[in-house]
Design a protein that fits this description.
- The chain is of the alpha/beta class.
- It folds into two domains: 71 residues; 215 residues, Vaccinia Virus protein VP39 (Rossmann fold, 3-Layer(aba) Sandwich), CATH 3.40.50.150.
- 44% of the residues lie in helices and 17% in strands.
- It is built from 15 helices and nine strands.
- Strands 5-4-3-6-7-9-8 form a seven-stranded mixed sheet, sandwiched between helices.
- Helix 2 packs antiparallel against helix 5 and helix 7 runs parallel beside helix 9.
- It is elongated.
- The N and C termini lie far apart (75 Å).
- The structure holds S-adenosylmethionine.
- S-adenosylmethionine binds next to helix 9, strand 4 and helix 13.
Length: 307
């Protein structure tokens, strides 16, 4: 096949970025981008299978604009810019969520968190699943810090009759989670998303919830365990919680009597090294339990509020 591009392509080639695409994850990223650009699927599959993205093949098969776009993305990848932000989407359980810079990218351990909550609720509210008509309308969940909406949307899918309110301080998160809920659950979904600080929002001062769920910011500000790319590219307000990473839990502990009613269920995702501190911060709760993630690290805290 004849090359279909002008000589100016030579200038792009001088960047030599293609030769640096050696990592499998970059190859997969590029294949996704090419799919979005409606490039022939058989060709993409062949390139991925053979791990080859050469100038020759790309120049012959894809539009010049796509070629330049891939070059730009390759450079961003090399700087550690998250692939989810480049693709503007991230998988979460069975859903594909929109994400964008400024909003936390949902993580695999949070998928496990949701499955853990689901299993616990199935045990505690067995009728909700045994009989589809059983109403759990009396139960009202609050999620604090919804980000892309990952947790609330997945729990609404699992428990369609559960009333869900969700609050996040970030305007971008509010827009994105609302759009994700509409795409996934439909325009008439009933999750009530709020954009505000959970600890000062007046609406939350007036009601109580039977289920409280949060994957809050829990990273210590100077943590050495945090990957540089995460620190650089993901929102600080979603990550950091003071010098020891526990500020949010301490604040939560002092606000629980406002949010909860007798026997409210509480679920928090925690840092892998925070189990003992979190148990101590929430020492006043009943039935405290720490669940490990699939790597065997303590990750999920659950408890029952006792008024
Ligand atoms: C670690 S992210 C979790 C996002 C999402 N739930 C997930 O698991 O992917 C924490 C979220 O808490 C939000 N946040 C931080 N401080 C908050 C506050 N005071 N009130 C409400 N949301 C807050 C951040 O904007 C961020 O979206």
């Amino acid at each position: 096949m004849k090359p279909i591009f002008s000589i100016s392509v030579q200038a792009a080639l001088q960047t030599k970025w293609l030769r640096q695409i050696t990592q499998r994850k970059q190859i997969l990223l590029f294949s996704k981008v090419l799919k979005k650009l409606a490039v022939d699927k058989a060709l993409i599959d062949a390139m991925v299978h053979e791990s080859i993205f050469t100038e020759k093949i790309l120049l012959q098969k894809i539009p010049l604009s796509a070629f330049f776009m891939l070059g730009k993305m390759a450079k961003q990848c090399q700087k550690g810019f998250p692939m989810a932000y480049l693709l503007k989407e991230a998988p979460f359980l069975t859903n594909m969520l929109k994400v964008e810079p400024g909003v936390f990218i949902p993580r695999p351990e949070t998928e496990e968190f949701v499955i853990y909550i689901q299993k616990k609720l199935q045990k505690l509210w067995p009728k909700a699943l045994a009989t589809p008509d059983f109403s759990i309308a009396n139960e009202h969940m609050l999620e604090i810090g919804f980000g892309s909406g990952a947790i609330s949307i997945a729990l609404q899918q699992a428990f369609p009759k559960l009333a869900i309110s969700a609050i996040d301080i970030s305007k971008k998160a509010f827009k994105l989670a609302t759009a994700n809920a509409q795409d996934i659950l439909g325009p008439r979904h009933s999750i009530q998303f709020m954009e505000a600080d959970a600890f000062t929002h007046m609406a939350l001062q007036k009601q109580t919830f039977s289920l409280l769920v949060s994957n809050p910011p829990y990273v210590a500000e100077h943590s050495k365990d945090l990957a540089q790319e995460v620190r650089k590219f993901e929102p600080a307000s979603a990550l950091f919680a003071g010098a020891d990473g526990l500020r949010f839990y301490r604040k939560m502990a002092s606000y629980l009597p406002k949010f909860c009613t007798r026997d409210s269920l509480i679920f928090f995702e925690i840092g892998f090294d925070q189990a003992a501190d979190v148990i101590s911060i929430f020492s006043f709760l009943k039935n405290k339990h720490i669940e490990k993630d699939f790597l065997g690290k303590p990750r999920f805290f659950s408890a029952v509020f006792s008024a």
